Amino acid sequence: MRDLICITDPGQEQAVALLSIVASPHDFTVLGIIASAGNTTLDHTVENVFKVLELAGVEGVPVYKGVPQPLLRPLVTAAHVHGETGLDGYDFPPVVGTPEEESGVSALIRLCRAAPPHSITIAQFSSMTTLAVALSEAPDIAGHIAEIVMMAGAYFEVGNITPAAEFNIYVDPHAAAIVLGSGIRLVMLPLDITHQLRNTRARLDAFSALGNECGRAVDQLLTFSETFDLAKYGWDGAPLHGPVVPLYLLRPELFHGRQINARVETGSELTMGMLVADYWQITDLPRNVFYARDVDADPFYEELTARIARLR
User: Fold this and answer.
1) What is the CATH number for 89?
2) Burial class (CB in 10 A: 0-12, 13-18, 19+), 143
C-alpha cells in the first residue's frame, strides 16, 4: 500500500490515470490530489479532477489548487489537443465538489511533514511548479518522499510541443530543473515509452465492452483527444501518456530502462525545456533519474483495462 499524492492537470489521458488509481484502493491511499495549470487553466483542471472522482463515485479525497502559472514564463496550455475544458469528449454531469481552502503548496508540505521518512509517493502528471515551490519553501519535505514518479521528458522521441521539448517540462522548465536537482529518487516515464502505447481502435473498444459507465467514458475521452495525434503522427492509435504513472507503480516489471543523469535546458529559447538525458552515460554526472525507455504494451493495456473494469 502506497501513500500517494497526485499532482495533475486533467486532460483526457490523465483522467484515465486517475480512474485507474481510484480503482486500486488496496494499492494506493490517496492523501490528496493537487490540480495544476498545464493542459488547461487551473479553474478547469480543478473542476476536471472532480468530474473524474464523481464519475467513479469516489468521495472523501481532498482536492487542492496548485500554483496557477509557471515560475518565470507565461502559461502554455494544450487546448488544441484536449479542448477548452481539457476533458472534452464526454458529457459529464455538473460538478458537486469544491476544493479545499488550503493551497496545494501548503497541503503538500503539511502532508509530507506529517508522514514518516521516505514514505510518500508523488504521482507527478503535469508541470512541476507546485512541487518545485513546495521543495523550495520547505526543503525538509524531501526526506519524507520515497520517490517522485513523473510523466515527463523525452530523449529518443525529443519533443511534442516544440521540436526540442516535451510538454510537461516545457510548461515550466525552471520548476523541472528544481525537481531534478532535489536529490529525491526520481522515475521518469517519457515520450519514449508513451509513444509505444497506442490507443488502437481495438484497445479503445475494449473499454466500452466492459459495459460500465467509466469504461464508456474512457473510450469517448480518448477518442476525442486522439484526433490531433492521429493527424500528427499517422499511427494506428494515439499515444497514451497519463496512465504510465499508476501502471509503473502497480506493474514496474513492464517498464525497462536505466539510471542516468538528466538535466533541463532553461537558457535557450531554441531548446527551452529540452531534456538533456545522458542515456549513454557519456558524463560522470550523478545519475539522478531512473529513465524508462521501453514498455510492454499488451500487458500494460490488459492491466489498465482490468482496473477500469472495477469501476461503476
Assistant:
1) 3.90.245.10
2) middle
Structure confidence by residue, pLDDT tens digits, 126-182 = 999 999 999 999 999 999 999 999 999 999 999 999 999 999 999 999 999 999 999
Number of domains in the chain: 1
Task: Check if the beta carbon of residue 279 is closer than 8 Å to that of residue 175.
Answer: no
pLDDT of the residue at 10: 97
HEC-encoded secondary structure of the chain:
CEEEEEEECCCHHHHHHHHHHHCCCCCEEEEEEEECCCCCCHHHHHHHHHHHHHHCCCCCCCEEECCCCCCCCCCCCCHHHHCCCCCCCCCCCCCCCCCCCCEHHHHHHHHHHHCCCCCEEEEECCCCHHHHHHHHHCHHHHHHEEEEEEECCCCCCCCCCCCCCCHHHHHCHHHHHHHHCCCCCEEEECHHHHCCCEECHHHHHHHHCCCCHHHHHHHHHHHHHHHHHHHHHCCCCEECCCCHHHHHHHCHHHEEEEEECEEECCCCCCCCCCEEECCCCCCCCCCCEEEEEEECHHHHHHHHHHHHHCCC
Q: Which residues share a beta bridge with 123?
A: 6, 149
Beta carbons within 10 angstroms of residue 253's beta carbon: 8
Interval 85-99 mean pLDDT? 95
Residues catalogued as catalytic = 241
Residue 63: C-alpha distances to residues 47, 52, 60, 90, 197 (Å) = 10, 12, 9, 22, 29
* Type of residue at 145: I
Contact 240, 199 (CB under 8 A): yes
Separation between Cα atoms, residue 278 and residue 268, nearest integer Å: 19
Contact 308, 269 (CB under 8 A): no
The boundaries of the domain holding residue 76 are: 2-309
